[in-house]
Predict the structure.
Amino acid sequence: MIHDAHKNIVEETKSKMPNTDTLFELADFFKVFGDSTRIRIMCALFEQELNVCCIADIVGMEQSTVSHQLRVLRQENLVKVRRDGKQSYYSLEDEHIQKIFEMGLEHILE
Amino acid sequence: MIHDAHKNIVEETKSKMPNTDTLFELADFFKVFGDSTRIRIMCALFEQELNVCCIADIVGMEQSTVSHQLRVLRQENLVKVRRDGKQSYYSLEDEHIQKIFEMGLEHILE
DNA sequence: ATAACATATGAATAATTGTTCATATGTTCA
DNA sequence: TGAACATATGAACAATTATTCATATGTTAT
């Protein structure tokens, strides 16, 4: 029956998928890449570690905005901080970021 | 002077970055991955092409919700549709998707 | 200790976005 | 043609999120 076929496809597909919690986490992870300010921050950090006010100047936004977004990036383990005197220097934490960027760029430049 | 050093870093970094428009597009592209419903839809489509009501059953959401999200995925060229009678069969359009998923999963499973 | 600077954080606001309901469009078959 | 089904779409609502302002925290040097 067609109805059974439908049911089978649904059950079979569900059984092959990673568990739902993982996929929710995955979405939360990609959410971080879905904001242009954060994208530009990460992009700037490809070159070298930078302190907050440099980043703010590079992306052309308030220091406060940048601090908030850096916190988001920290929470997802995408950047790390190093304190040096009055300044906080941020750098990329994860080697997947570059590859994810590359994939994305390849896609949109097609 | 320290101030000049700052300025140099800012200008040099900016000059090495992709242009801003591209980075905004990139953010919009990743935005699509930042929703758990869309993530689960794409994940289901890794296995095989599926029609809308199968997808709705798999992700456990309204047909209408799924249709709306499929439109988003279509607009970013991530899925394609094939009409067969009353049904619309969706499949993945792009080979980058799998790699992006893999990178993301590797990151969150660390 | 205090002034000056860098960064972080809380609260408020504005904007974006996901979901649902209701309904329209498109397709098949009697 | 009309009934039944699959999908798409518009409007409304709820929820999330990015940004800003104001201010707190932390650090250095006088």
About this structure: Chain A touches chain B through 51 residues (CB under 8 Å). The mean pLDDT of chain A is 94. The longest strand of chain A covers residues 79-84.
